[in-house]
């Protein structure tokens, strides 16, 4: 019996062509942001710090949800209650002026968060934009801007704040935020400039330039998305630093001024009596420490999640 040979049709694309895949959901492409967010959600430190920060934001936006009293209402302070310790109805006790410390601590959250957020946004935008332009342009413009930024970078932010705020005189949260932004932008500038210089010679930038993309499109459409991770990390950590700096300036008497409420002012008022009435110092200092710690913890876990060198 002769062997029968059965010929099978060869696909039009060749013998190595793959069979068509069934239609369905498109495959998710891995990215630094998606991987980082997936990693963050698994870290207990991120969940704890995020919970604390959300609570602080709610305190800042709606302090009336946590206390029925207002520190700016008539009769809020009563000297007969001066330095009375914690008790029922006044959980944190009273300060030297007979003001309820719990209510003042809750309302003081707003000014601290405003200073931290506004200063961080301004320094990120100012330092980021100048860093992109200087790193992309190069030449004498880059050298001039870099030397100018070193003048601010060499000056510690607290000492610079003392110098500038003493010349400004009376101030509020917006003045403090502006001063901290002017002094803090070089840090973001240096990081952004280094990231731009490291990315502007990559193939995707050369391809965009070959396709006719202008400098601004290359900077903000192609380079910026690939340089945001370290900026997000440093900005998150700086937020806690600015809150602590505002409290230090207010403690020294040249930051937020009364009748505005600041944790630094409350600590200053209680420092002379902390041995006999420690509650007046511990509660605002504890609120400040917890806030700064939460943002620093968040910055640490964000750095671990989004820094490719640590992954």
Can you give a write-up of this model?
- By secondary structure, the protein is an all-alpha fold.
- It has one domain: MetI-like (MetI-like fold).
- Helix content is 63%, strand content 0%.
- The protein contains eleven helices and no strands.
- Helix 2 crosses helix 3, helix 3 packs parallel to helix 11 and helix 6 packs antiparallel against helix 9.
- The longest helix has 37 residues.
- The chain starts with 31 loop residues before the first helix and ends in a 5-residue tail after the last helix.
- The N terminus is likely disordered.
How is this fold's topology laid out?
Elements: H1 32-40, H2 44-61, H3 101-137, H4 139-153, H5 157-168, H6 173-199, H7 203-210, H8 215-223, H9 228-251, H10 263-270, H11 279-306
Helix pairs in contact: 1-11, 2-3, 2-11, 3-4, 3-6, 3-9, 3-11, 4-6, 5-6, 6-9, 7-8, 9-10, 9-11, 10-11
Q: Work out the helicity level.
A: 55-70%
Mean pLDDT: 84
Q: What is the first-to-last residue Cα distance?
A: 66 Å
Overall spatial form: elongated
The CATH class designation is Mainly Alpha
Radius of gyration, rounded? 28 Å
**What is the number of strand segments?**
0
Major sheet attributes: none
The total domain count is: 1
Element string (H = helix, E = strand): HHHHHHHHHHH
Determine the number of helices (DSSP H or I, runs of at least 4 residues). Answer: 11
CATH architecture grouping: Orthogonal Bundle
Domain ABC transmembrane type-1: 109-299
Subcellular location: Cell membrane
Region (Disordered): 1-26
GO biological process, one term: transmembrane transport
